[in-house]
């Protein structure tokens, strides 16, 4: 993944799209249950930082699979949706590989677009714990929906910045 702050040299329309997607993530009601932040660092690359605590543990003392799925799906989804500036994508399938128990502490979900530019996108993500160990990975397919990004709460662009169905350097 690119270094922290790698998005500083992006074209204005692309950077505005990334910041608007970050606002969309922050505004999603489900995220009130997860202390997390999204950073889209480049086209096709997303990073979510979150903290796992005992509230999401199963009876065995580690994070329940719902936490793995949520963060892997979100990281892959936003990596893919960073390439689409007019429509909200929908997850159509997602496969998980859980390799280690996820304990309390900070975790990073790293998402990366793999292929697709028109209707269906493929992206992958991995979870990395505080010790730098990969604890899970997932691959998903995402399809363009009829839902306009511009009409969603939290997705806001500065006035005058491209973003409708125009390209502005992104796949539409």
Summarize the SSE layout with pairings.
Elements: H1 12-27, E1 36-42, E2 45-52, H2 65-81, E3 87-98, E4 105-115, E5 120-129, E6 134-148
Antiparallel strand pairs: 1-2, 2-4, 3-6, 4-5, 5-6
Throw out a few tags for this protein.
alpha+beta; disordered N terminus; 6-stranded antiparallel sheet; 2 helices; 172 residues
Describe this structure in words.
Strand 5 and strand 6 form a beta hairpin. 19% of the residues lie in helices and 37% in strands. It is α+β, with helices and mostly antiparallel strands and 172 residues long. The model is unreliable at 1-8 and 161-172 (pLDDT under 50). The two termini are 24 Å apart. Strands 1-2-4-5-6-3 form a six-stranded antiparallel β-sheet.
| Mean of pLDDT | 88
Cα-atom radius of gyration:
16 Å
Tell me the number of helical segments per DSSP (H or I, 4 or more residues long). 2
Order of helices and strands: HEEHEEEE
Largest sheet strand order: 1-2-4-5-6-3
Classification by helices and strands: alpha+beta
Strand content: 35-45%
Coarse morphology: globular
What is the total tally of β strands?
A: 6
* Major beta-sheet overview: 6 strands, antiparallel
| Helical content class | 10-25%
* Amino-to-carboxy terminus distance: 24 Å
**Which regions are unreliable across 5 or more consecutive residues at pLDDT < 50?**
1-8, 161-172
